[in-house]
Amino acid sequence: MKKIINYSLLFLKYLLYLGAFAISLYIITIINQKQNRNITELITAILPYILLLIVFFINIILRQKNINHNIFYNLTCCIAFLTTIIVGLRSIYDTNMILNQITGYNINFIYFNDYLVYMKILIYGLIISNLCFMFKNKKSDVKKETEVL
Amino acid sequence: MKNIVIEYFNILAYIITGIVFSIASFLIIINIYHYKNVNEVYKTQDSNYEIKDNLKYKLDNIKSNINNLPSSTNPNFIAYSKIQTKLNICYEKIDIEQFDKLLTKTDISISDVYNMQQFYKLNIANECLIKQLYTLVDDEDNSINNLASFNLVKPFIKNNIDQLKESSDYIEKVIKSNSSYKFTNDFTKSSIYDEVKDSYYKIINDYNNSIDFIYDISIWYKNEVGENT
User: Fold this and answer.
1) Domain residue spans of chain A
2) Which parts of B107-178 are beta strand (E)?
3) Nearest to residue B127, comparing CAs of B147, B105, B170, B98?
4) Residue of A73, A83, A139 lying closest to B17 (CB–CB)
């Protein structure tokens, strides 16, 4: 049972990551185009996603089970990405938020901009905790393995 | 020593993950609540149909009142023609398809209230009250000011326009702020102000007062022209 939850959360984590990254990239690119912002602003907004992707690749390549099979970490990742997707979809489709109509872009940039700070906090938090989880106690792992055997 | 440092890193990782978990959970819950709050729909009551019928009835009467033209022999023909033209423009700005659509809606959302407020601000307050009726009071060539009966109703027109032109501005400010999480909570909604329902009735009330006001001027115009024809 625990294994099923583990693998489903792991799969969901990567799926939601793609969704959150795609929707953030779409909105931020349109904001930059419409408001003629500098490309560096786009990069600083996307940078945490790229760093997190690198960290995820390291997790997969090095087969770090203490991260990949950490239910709490995977669940936190899922909730963080789901929040980004909800905020992104609301910025586009929630027309009852009046600023969506007023700006005339059909995307509520102001609402998404308010969330950008939280998004960075969440993703940098996930990166830092992932890096901290990478330091594992080899002795305790050996002990656990011998206990299982 | 190395083990202690590794344990500290592990604890730190769980603390940071916990903080991220708390913030993300808070944001997801507040977003769901905010969505529910912003997408609230108010179903109009049967009594609203009376108000709407009354508004349409008054608009029809305004039309028939301003259809009376002053006779060409009337010494104040130019002044009355000016008044008739301005009232006619007023009527044309208000009695349009958009006005009917706004009034016949049964499920009112916050964006409908905003559209009603914008219609009031742009078509009724700006185009009719300020651009047409207020200029009657400040007529430059004095042709209208020479009318003795108009000078009697002049303060009434001025005072009413001053009250009506900005009466819904605070609603616009409240509605515009609904894109942030600071939108009303249940306590303020139940005890102080319901964004959708109360704003809707305030704007309907403004429509009613403005059309009543134009209706009164049209009756005055009809009586004046009727007497002089």
Assistant:
1) 2-148
2) 107-108
3) B98
4) A73
Distance CA(A89)–CA(A82), nearest Å, equals: 10
Q: In a 10 Å sphere around its CB, with 0-12 CB exposed, 13-18 middle and 19+ buried, how is residue B25 labelled?
A: middle
Interface test with A, best of B20, B38, B174, B195 (most A CBs within 10 A): B20
Quote the tokens at residue B28: 């997801």
User: What is the C-alpha to C-alpha distance for residues B119 and B124, in angstroms, rounded to an integer?
Assistant: 7
Look at residue A49 and tell me whether its pLDDT is greater than 60: yes
Contact A83 B109 (CB under 8 A): no
Q: Tell me the β-bridge partners of B42.
A: B108
| Residue recorded with tokens 């090095």 | A62
For chains A and B, what is the number of CB pairs under 8 angstroms?
102
Looking at the predicted structure, is the pLDDT value of residue B89 above 80?
A: yes
Min mean pLDDT across A44-48, A141-145, B130-134 is at A141-145
With tokens 């605070």, the residue in question is B170
Do residue A129 and residue B14 have CB atoms under 8 angstroms apart? yes
Query: Nearest Cβ partner of A95 from B16, B24, B111?
Result: B111
- Asked if B38 reaches chain A (Cβ–Cβ under 8 Å), the answer is yes
CA distance B114 to B172: 7
Interface confidence, given as ipTM, is 0.87
**Sign (positive or negative) of CA dihedral A32, A35, A41, A47:** negative
A137 touches chain B (CB under 8 A): yes
SS3 A136: coil
Say if the Cβ atoms of B111 and A96 lie within 8 Å: yes
CA B78, CA A64: separation in Å to the nearest integer?
91
Q: Got the DSSP string for B34-74?
A: HHHHHT--EEPPTHHHHHHHHHHHHHHHHHHHHTPPPPTT-
* Phi then psi dihedrals of residue B141, to 5 deg: -85, 5
